[in-house]
Amino acid sequence: MSLDRPVSPDPYTLLPVVASFPVTSEDVTDGRPLKDDQVAALGNTSPQLSWSGAPEGTKSYVVTCFDPDAPTPSGFWHWVLVDLPADTTSLDSGAGAEGAVLPGNAFMCRNDGGPKAFMGAAPPQGDQVHRYYFVVHAVGEETLGVDSDASAAVVSFNLAFKTLGRAILTGTYQH
Fold first, then answer.
1. Any idea which fold 15-173 has?
2. Can you give the pTM of this predicted structure?
């Protein structure tokens, strides 16, 4: 069976326009292949992220990792970290580990692989290059209004109404 298909659009260009702000990483270089640590079978470790310059009125953050290139109509959510306090401006490498101690009342929702944790890149062997969008969403409320049982789609739906800005860093991977 062939997985040949068109490349999915950048999912964030399909959403309402919001302010942007910078995000950097010691582990991910924008537009470049992910390091082995961020691959499910080779390390499965969430990357270090740092951000600054969020829009005025930011009261919390949500951090996500999304692969729009998965061979599904809905892509694949690799990480959903909700309700980071507004004074948080970085995450250490490995902050997405299952059971990790997070700042304030932050919590993780299930990724599309099942655990409430970060799941590294795991595209089908021989498939097209996959893009991994690491996004820091600046939220205008202290809580997003969901709990850890919310799906990534429900988190994203709530973000559509509460996001003041986004910081986006994209890594790639092909197996």
1. Phosphatidylethanolamine-binding Protein (3.90.280)
2. 0.97
